[in-house]
Amino acid sequence: MSNPGQIDRRSLMVGAAVSATALSLGPGSGPALAEDYPTRAITVINPFPPGGAADVVARPFAAVVEPIIKQPMVIETKAGAAGAVGGQFAANAKPDGYTLLMHIVSISGFAEVDRLFGRKPKFTRDDFIPVARLIADPCVLVVNDKQPYKTLQEFIDDAKKRPNELIFSSSGLYGALHLPMALFLKAAGLQVRHLPTAGGGPAVTALIGNNAQALVSSIAAASGQMKAGRVRPLASFGATRAPSLPDVPTMKELGFDLEYYLWVGLFAPKGTPEPIVTKLRDVTREAVKTEAFEKAMKNIGQDVAYQDQAEFKAFWDVDARRIEDAVRSIGKVEG
């Protein structure tokens, strides 16, 4: 007959081994976690109104992911505060792989803005796991078709003659479309009034309605309006001319040392188990290579600029420092 003490010790050792395995896979995980995931719909938070860069990338992305994972991928819009509302919601979501975030370059500056105003940051970059970058779109300065400007210099000359008369729209204070325009205005010595909106889509709407005369937009978000002739590009913020806008000079060509990209990336909340993150990376890698996704990006004048997790994290670390510097350069701006 076995000694009861020996049985208890053996059970304890087995239990400890099982617990160690579960812990190594992350909270709520099991050995088959990566194989089982997902078992239900995945929600991707779009932190901007429809029509912005995150939205026009997230929707075709979800469409090609669904057949791969054999589950729905739902885009849920939670707009506000130039993308901070959706970012905060995702940062506080359960880290189980069923709530993800599709965000843009501005995610890097929110904590710095809070610090600028003496507030405790609502979230920081450390609250997210970068899964993959999907696109990196050089921004473009556009004016609406009611304006006479055919070149950037014509815009500059008129703005200097009429300080604080012209208006530019943006996706919100310290948002992805405010930062490059503010840096350009500072470099050119211009005084142009700011009309912050709730996202890239409303910023374009303000422009074509002539509530604003200028806007720095992603090429993707402004593509349809450029094709329709409602807005006119004057200069891009890329290191080289954009393939979809070969006749549009860069800021650097025109004498301004400015370079700015509106990239879109997929993020998971901090604490998401590594096997789930690995599965998401694999799915994303497969999805961005599909003909359907590449065609969808081409239709909005955008090339896929995919980076897997390690490469994206390295890129994000460098890019975030530049965005934080831009926020500090702009300084305190009240709504």
UniProtKB/TrEMBL annotation:
A Pfam cross-reference name: TctC
Xref: PANTHER family: BLR1237 PROTEIN, TRICARBOXYLATE-BINDING PROTEIN
Source superkingdom: Bacteria
Name of the protein in question: Tat pathway signal protein
Annotated signal peptide: none
Membership in a protein family: Belongs to the UPF0065 (bug) family.
Lineage of producing organism: Bacteria, Pseudomonadati, Pseudomonadota, Alphaproteobacteria, Hyphomicrobiales
Organism: Rhodoplanes roseus
InterPro entries, per database record: BUG, Bug_dom1, TAT_signal
